[in-house]
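Researcher: I'd like a structural prediction for the single chain below. Treat it as a standalone chain; there are no partners to consider.
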Amino acid sequence: MGGSVGIGALIVGTSLMLVFALAVQSLDSRMETSLEVIEDAGEPIPSFQIDDATLWEGAVLTVTVTSNGSGYQDGTLIEQSGSGGFLGTFTVDAAGGIENVIITNRGNYSSPPTIIVDTSGQPLTSTGATFSSDIGNFIYSNLTNTGPVTIKNREAWLFLDGGTSEEPTNLGSVTSGITTHWYPGETIQIQWAEDGATTYDRISLTSSGLTMVNTLA
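Model: Treating it as a single chain, here is the predicted structure.
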């Protein structure tokens, strides 16, 4: 009789220890989950905005030197009619032939403009340089990091018209300057030559699960 009582008490005690162990394990699990939630809640959330966005459908994308000419000094390129807004600069080789062109203002045209040398300040003997140009979509946009988080440019993506017809473009590939990070409070500028559809209506930026959209003017 006494042995049976002792065995029964041992079984009850063992059961209580098992229940206690399971309870402790459950509390540990809940505590770990709670700590994870608290830790996640403490991480700052990124925030940014598209300040403005402009699409020029007839921007000068490229200028090609078709004839170098001779006798020139480093100078300026303009559009023959003086309209549309195009401006560029050039450098010359030892013979005064034009060899390198930099576009400083792309302008906006309905057809490729005629590019010429601004003769102001050029020697009277300079002659013969000719150029060809191509036009297409060019997007200008200013973006501001309004949050406390530094965003890596390679982890942010741009879409046009909601990304329904075009592949995303990495922010780092169209950002002016050489920085690879977008810092809190910093405004960066996009200069994006986009030769896809004839026109677009919206631009969107996505990073870390946040998406902002703006209408292209």
